[in-house]
Amino acid sequence: MQKNTDIQFEHLGLIDYKEAWDYQDKLFNATLDIKVQNRAAAPDAQLPTPNYLLFCQHPHVYTLGKSGHEEHLLLNQEGLKAKGATYYKINRGGDITYHGPGQIVGYPILDLENYFTDIHKYLRFLEEAIILTLAEYGVEAGRIEGLTGVWLDHVEQRNPRKICAMGVKCSRWVTMHGFAFNINTDLDYFNNIVPCGISDKAVTSLAKELGREVPLAEVEEKLLKHLGALFGAKITTAAHEEGH
C-alpha cells in the first residue's frame, strides 16, 4: 500500500477543551479503524490512512496527563471557578499543564507509519518546528536533556524557561494530543500549578521575550511551513465545520 504523507490542516479557533478532545478522538479512532481493516485486507485492497493537524486555542483549562500528580494543581474547585478555569484528567503522557487564549495548541493526528515509526523522532520533529519558528523571531531555543518541550536558555541554564509544552498519546503508530506554544499567553495562570511537574524552572511566552504581542496567525503560518518541511508533507487546509 502506498504511504500517504499529505496532512489535512484544520483551524478550530477558540474551542472548549473537551469539544476539541472529542473531535481528536473521533479522527484518531477512525484512523485506527482503517488500520484494523487493512490488517485483514489483501494488500491491493488496503486503504491509505489520513493525517490531520488541528490548531486551536482553549478557554482557561488545566489538564493532567496519565503520569501526573493531582497535587501539582494548586487550586481547589472554588479556586478554579474564581479563575474561570476548568480541569481535566486526560490520556496523554506527561504531568499537568495549562492551556488558554494566546497560545497555539497543536494536535497532530498522524499515522506515523506514513513517515517513520519512531515516537522519539516524532517528538523531536515537533520540538524542531517550534525551535525553527522561534529562530525567525531572533529567539534562540532548544532542548534540555531529560525534559520534553522547547526551552530558552537551554545551554547555560542560568534562567531556563519553557516556551512550549508537549504531551502525546500514540497507539498503533497513530498520534493524538500534541503541543502548547505560548505566544501571547497570560503566564499568571501557570502560578496555579507545578508546570509539567517541574518546580524549579520558569515558563515564558514569545510576547514576553520580545516585549510585544505577536499576531498568532503570523506564527501559525511559520509553524505550518516548518512542520510540512520536517515531515516532508503537503499540508492542505480544510474548512472547519461547526459541530464536526
Structure write-up:
- This protein is an alpha/beta fold.
- The chain contains 5 helices and 12 strands.
- It has a single domain, classed as 2-Layer Sandwich (BirA Bifunctional Protein, domain 2), CATH 3.30.930.10.
- Helix 3 crosses helix 5 (216-231).
- The radius of gyration is 18 Å and the shape is globular.
- The mean pLDDT is 92.
- CATH homologous superfamily title: Bira Bifunctional Protein, Domain 2
**Number of H- or I-type helical stretches:** 5
- Helix-strand topology string: EHEEHEEEHEEEEEHHE
What does the largest sheet look like?
Answer: 9 strands, mixed
Mean pLDDT over the full residue set: 92
Number of domains: 1
Distance between the termini: 29 Å
Percent in helix: 25-40%
Assembly annotation: single chain
Question: Which structural class do the helices and strands define?
Answer: alpha/beta
CATH architecture: 2-Layer Sandwich
Say how many strands there are.
12
CATH topology: BirA Bifunctional Protein, domain 2
List strands and helices in order, with pairings:
Layout: E1 7-14, H1 17-40, E2 52-57, E3 61-64, H2 77-83, E4 86-89, E5 96-99, E6 103-109, H3 119-135, E7 141-144, E8 147-152, E9 161-171, E10 174-182, E11 202-203, H4 206-210, H5 216-231, E12 235-238
Parallel strand pairs: 1-2, 1-12, 3-4, 9-11
Antiparallel strand pairs: 2-6, 3-5, 6-10, 7-8, 8-9, 9-10
Helix pairs in contact: 3-5
